Amino acid sequence: MDTQSLILDRLRRSVAAKEEFVRSSLKEIECLAGMIRNTLEAGGKLLVFGNGGSAADAQHLAAEFVNRYLIKRRPLAALALTTDSSALTAIANDFAFEQVFAKQIQALGRQEDLALGISTSGKSANVIKGMEAAREIGMQRAALTGGLQHPGAELGPLCHVVLNVPSDETPHIQETHLFIEHLLCELVERQMFPHT
To answer: In percent, how much of the chain has pLDDT > 90?
Structure first.
C-alpha cells in the first residue's frame, strides 16, 4: 500500500469507528454527560484514570474541566489520578501497580463523586481495582472502553454507564475516546452555563 492510500485508509477507518460509536451510543453519551453535570452541580468531583494513552486522556479531560473547554466559566472539579508520580510510585513499590488508582480513590473519593475509568480493552487490572474501590465508597461509576467481541470486558459490569467503541483497533478506539471526551466537555459546559 502506498503512503497516500495508507493515509486515506486510516482516515476512513478512524471516521468509521466514530460513526459506529455515535450510532450505537447516543443515549450513553447523554447519560454520562448528565452524570458529570449532576456530580459537579452537587459539589462533587470527577476522578479520571487510565494507563498510557488513556492516562494522557485522563489528564486532558481533567484539564478541560478545571480550566475551560470552549466557554469562559468557573473552574469545575476534576482530577486525573495519573499525575502524582510520588503517589503512583510509592503505591506501586509498597503494594502493587494494580492498586495505584484504588488507593487514591480510597483517599480522595467521596460518595458524591464520579469515577471515570478509561481502558481501551476494558481489562486493565488497576482501572478495575480503582472502580471496585469507587463501588465500595458508593460513587457513581463510568468507563470508556473498546472492543467488538467483549465490549467493556471486566470493567463494564462495575459501572453505571459504559461508552464502548465498537472496534478492535487500539488507535481508532483511542481517537474515538478523545472525540468522546471533547463531546462530554462541550455537553456539560452547555448544560451548566447556557447563557455564557
So the answer is: 92
Number of domains within the chain: 1
Diameter of the chain measured on Cα atoms = 54
pLDDT tens figures, 87-113: 999 999 999 999 999 999 999 999 999
Cα-to-chain-centroid distance, residue 77: 15
What confidence tens digit (pLDDT) does each residue in 113-128 have?
A: 999 999 999 999 999 9
CATH at residue 100: 3.40.50.10490
Distance CA 86, CA 149 (A): 37
This prediction's pTM: 0.95
Range(s) of the domain holding residue 111 = 3-192
CA distance 31 to 79: 20
The CA distance from 152 to 120, in Å, is 9
d(CA 130, CA 16): 31
Neighbours of 142 (CB within 10 A): 26
